[in-house]
Predict the 3D structure of the following.
Amino acid sequence: MAADAGLREGLERDDDFGHRSLMSPLPRPHSDVPAPPWPLARVAGIVVLAWIALSWPWLSGVVTIPWDAKAHFQPQLQFLAEAWHSGRSPFWTPYVFAGSPQIADPQSLIFSPPFALIAALEPVPGFRLGDGAVLGTLLAGALAFVVIFRDRDWHPAGAVVAALAFAFGAAAAWRIQHIGQVLSLGYFAITLALIARALERGSIAYGFAAGIVAGFMVLGRDQVALLGVYVLAGLVLAAIAMARQPWRALKTSLLPLLAGGVGALLVATVPILLTAILAEGSNRPTIDLIGAGKGSLHPAALLTGLFANLFGAAGPLENFWGAPSPAFEARFGPQDLYLARNMSQLYLGLIPMGLILTIGIVRGALLRREIVALSVAALLVLIFALGRFTPGFRLLFELPGVSFYRRPADALFILGALLALLGGYLTHLVMSDTAPRAKPWQRVVEVAIFAGALALALWLAWTVGRLSVAAVPLVTALLCGVLAIGALVAARGFALRGAGLAAAIVLAATLTIDLSVNNGPSESTALPAQDYDVLRADSTNETIALLKSETAATAGPDRRDRIELAGIGFHWPNASLVHRLDNTLGYNPLRLGIYSKATGAGDHVALPDQRTFSPLMPGYRSLLADMLGLRFIATGVPVEQIDKALKPGDLTLIARTPDAYVYENPRALPRVLLVANAEAADFDAILATGQWPEGFDPRRTVLLDRPLPPLPRDPLATGRPAAAAAPAGANPPGQSPAGSVRIADYGTTEVTLRVEAPQGGYVVLNDVWHPWWQVEIDGAPAEILRANVLFRAVAVPPGRSTVRFVFRPFRGLFQDVGKRLRTQPAGTITRR
């Protein structure tokens, strides 16, 4: 009875500021003996040692984090590092999609502290540095969980369980290749620890720090960050509402929360606005409810909470039989789901999950006041993850921002973090002997849960015809279950004898074994580093070497030829970022909408059938391909299998390397042109129909989206000396009947041209149009023109001049925002 009274006292205790913290601590039993200090350094050391053991396959370089981590993010990191160390700006890249605004791209890593630091320190960052940054972020989040447990005086063994389950459980383990979302998850954990301290201590400093970290989380601009914001906001509101004096709690929380808001705004405002403006003109559509439902977590996937790799997700691919695999659909019909095999994995160790199902749910410990807010948050996130399989998703989908994302199953990142905390808390109850005792009927229910889960898993495997695949995961789960029970018994014995650190070591060792066996390296998370040799800056790949030599050989005063990498492999499209090759394609889910519409460029082009075309660019034998300066095309299959409209002689096969067929387009036009004539044209009509105006020749005429007055023809009117007229007949490189233009310097965000135009004219730069580019003539601002649907141009006066195109995103952003504020009617709010 005394213990029960003490427990009730702990459940009702508020902090010194009149409100309950996000997770309230239980009181220590009354004793005349001073309580020993919480062993923060030693617990952190245990977590770090376990982290090293579980991360070693990647840290050693034996394997590397594959797929998106290499195909998308490693080239971004290399571009960022190379740009900084060469004195160039990383805000725009000419190396993918014929030009892309990196400053507004959420996945460019410019605003990612760990990767930006690597890029600043290392000009050629290797694979292990990138992998280490990802794993290090998870370690930082794990240590933040240790701090949460320390602040509540919860048992060290619980802290270890929560930390390791967070860093190596659920989506954090199975989707580690999705770098942006993993970073958002790490920032979520750190923010949670900081905001808890801010509220508990009424600390403005901790509030500001929480806002800074939350700002970096929001900069991920992914669904994990969005859900993290909602969960954090909900926990703060719950802490205030559940206080004994909510009004006083609100007042004492205001300054820390305001400081947090200021910190977040300082970090996130400008990058978020940049991305928002980019998104308006991007290819990225708003996702509707039906489209989002296709990314829902299938309820059968919940079995992976107990049986890791039950559905064969670790590989090989033909073994996978979970939803929406062909084997699963053959038995249960079409599922209309769009999920990769590793996106439905919930396993975070049998110790935390077993305690959640038994002590937490059956015995009701998760409803205790100090933890119920986290329990409710986990339930809501689970409902969100299940998507269309629950009626609750329809309501959650109405939350602002949700419609920008296509996969409710991404919520497994946040769900894994919340379940890790809950599992650690329940471990604390067991170790401190405050867990509720099981009644006989509860014992029966607990046994029934595990027996039922095992029976359901066996039935599913049998009915789909994959018992042979499921057998090993099921047997492994049974063995790990025995190990987990034994470890809990041993650890509890140590804890009750006052050896809390020994209990933590036992559970850390057990969970390390469990997670290394069940969530260790797989085809989804670890592949040999040599598989990605083409993404190394010093790669000797034959295809890359050939493209470098050919583009160098064809370079001229007015030429900077582009290449295309199509259908060679998953990690090839962004290799151009590493090797500084101007590529017409790339790998990025967010692209300039006008470019995608004009060229047909998609998210990816790993497979031959992913190279789609458009009305304006129906194939490689098209005027737009020539205007892009697309000179060399490397394909994984004969190019006729990609562009079936090609005729003999349209392209010239110049090499067959081990990776690709390499072709030359002899009609590719120079990067810069000087033309004498301009015509107004309807660009929307040209894009829609694919028809250029009759007789249009980009070497003589530029098409503009607006009527312009005629150019001044009298050189005396400009105060410039008239240049000698070009001789009739053939024109040297860079020259035309209108004069000549050559590239003096070509950088990432600056392009300088030298122009000689005896009668004036129009300089056309065949680089992608974007409104944040500006132009100067002899240092004076000039009007930049959108030319030939997709490119940039400027009118130049007679004589010699220096034309400088400059990418100024911040000035462009402020102009865009100001324009919107001026044109928006008073009292109205627009919603995209």
